[in-house]
Amino acid sequence: MAGNVFGDPITDEDVKILYPEKTDITRKDRAEVAFLNMNSKGRDANAKTFVNNLKERYGNGISALCMIFNATGDTLTYAGKNDWHGHVYESPYPAKIQNGQWGAFLHVHPSWFAGSESAVIYRGYNGDAYLCDWLLSWGIPYVGDNHAYTEIREARHYETDHWDYIKGLLENQSTKHEDSWNGCYSIVTIGEGTSPEYVGIMTLDGVTK
């Protein structure tokens, strides 16, 4: 397990423990059990401790304490990022986040007078095995209110340069945003202040209802 992912993966075996009568286990079944276990066995607390320790080592300055959760029923793979301002500190974006795991990282502002503003993309499957990209983005301006934005599109959508457009969407959002597309769902929130927690949940439609 990579050093910046937290929690044992949720597998078919975990579904069978909760629903012993199930025989044909689906991706959505695994997603639902992952969501139910989002805060179990200290997985969320360990992610929070990790990112707070990164912040302590980094010290003062604008930063986003990012924690993202996979409840899609399968592994999510890092598929790219775009930094408008700033960069990740010390620990990279998790390369893979298995179902039921948290990934954590610290994104910090550049050395000059600017905030932390970035987007990260993870690729995985919807309930029908169609590859999709989940985009999670945040903005902590040097002056002004914080923003959170998310959207989901087909795989490799973000290999085309949509970044100016997405930046505009991000900066028009408040501290919470959600999206639903092609059987996938995501929700993101960011706190107030110059070093807030940013939380993103990537899952399937209907799992969080």
From TrEMBL:
Gene3D superfamilies (alphabetical): 2.60.270.50
Xref: InterPro entries: Jasmonate-induced_protein, Nakanori
Pfam families: Nakanori
Signal peptide: none
Transmembrane segments: none
Protein name: 23 kDa jasmonate-induced protein-like
